[in-house]
């Protein structure tokens, strides 16, 4: 019998974290919802239970304890919070998959906070050298999780990572959420993926997409 994996969503009460948690309510994973606001966590837990009363989920206030229990750790936090979290969970994330969903965008949405040769994912991998960092969900908006289909087309979710098995496991997770996974390559492609979403944010603001937009590769 296949062992159920535990996914810790660190930052579960944020828009992306909550959207991911709700999308996984009926999944084959055990969910561990982590946040710093107990009232918001309890509310999210109740919402997840309403989606699926048999959901295997719990909530927790400590990112270290959450990461220690998890097989897969999703850092559903802004780029500016990743470094501090990485230092906290480094000792308990050895050998585990750590998913970075962040985009290092400036407050005015005009560009990246990083130089053209750097990326949030590679910074995170350097901070967690013994973890398997995967870039995923950064090319999607929170509003897309509940409805990932646009005009009959399922939105793509791009992945990047250096560990093949970690990519396969993340690919399965993406499928359970409802997106079509596209493995873009190793972390060398990370900057492209982060810039893709920065561009989509800029286009969304300009063209009033109301945070409902996604990427799709069309091919024969």
Write the layout of secondary structure elements.
Layout: E1 6-10, H1 15-23, E2 30-34, H2 38-51, E3 57-60, H3 63-69, E4 72-75, H4 79-89, E5 97-100, H5 120-127, E6 132-135, H6 142-145, E7 149-150, E8 153-154, E9 156-161, H7 164-177, E10 180-185, H8 190-207
Parallel strand pairs: 1-2, 1-4, 2-3, 4-5, 5-6, 9-10
Antiparallel strand pairs: 6-9, 7-8
Give a brief description.
This protein is an alpha/beta fold and 220 residues long.
Q: What is the CATH topology?
A: Rossmann fold
Strand content: 15-25%
Number of helices: 8
H/E topology pattern? EHEHEHEHEHEHEEEHEH
Strand elements, count: 10
Low-confidence stretches: none
- What is the name of the CATH class? Alpha Beta
Order of strands across the main sheet: 3-2-1-4-5-6-9-10
Share of residues in helices:
25-40%
The CATH architecture assignment turns out to be 3-Layer(aba) Sandwich
Summarize the biggest pleated sheet: 8 strands, mixed
- Structural class by SSE content: alpha/beta
Rounded Rg = 16 Å
Give the rounded overall mean pLDDT: 91
Shape: globular
Our measurement of the CA-to-CA distance between the termini, rounded to an integer number of angstroms, reads 38 Å
CATH superfamily descriptor: NAD(P)-binding Rossmann-like Domain
């Amino acid at each position: 019998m296949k062992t159920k994996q535990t996914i810790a969503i660190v930052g579960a009460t944020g828009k992306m974290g909550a959207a991911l948690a709700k999308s996984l309510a009926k999944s084959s994973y055990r969910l561990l919802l982590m946040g710093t606001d107990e009232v918001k966590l309890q509310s999210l837990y109740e919402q997840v239970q309403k989606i699926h009363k048999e959901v295997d989920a719990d909530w927790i206030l400590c990112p270290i304890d959450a990461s220690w229990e998890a097989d897969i750790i999703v850092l559903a936090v802004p780029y500016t919070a990743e470094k501090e979290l990485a230092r906290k969970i480094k000792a308990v994330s050895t050998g585990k998959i750590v998913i970075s969903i962040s985009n290092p965008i400036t407050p005015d949405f005009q560009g990246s906070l990083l130089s053209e040769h750097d990326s949030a994912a590679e910074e995170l991998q350097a901070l967690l050298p013994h973890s398997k960092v995967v870039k995923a969900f950064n090319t999607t908006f929170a509003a897309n999780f509940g409805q990932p289909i646009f005009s009959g087309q399922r939105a793509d979710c791009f992945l990047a990572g250096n560990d093949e098995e970690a990519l396969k496991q993340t690919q399965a997770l993406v499928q359970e959420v409802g997106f079509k996974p596209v493995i873009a390559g190793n972390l060398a492609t990370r900057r492209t993926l982060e810039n893709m979403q920065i561009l989509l944010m800029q286009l969304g603001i300009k063209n009033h997409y109301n945070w409902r937009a996604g990427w799709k590769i069309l091919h024969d």
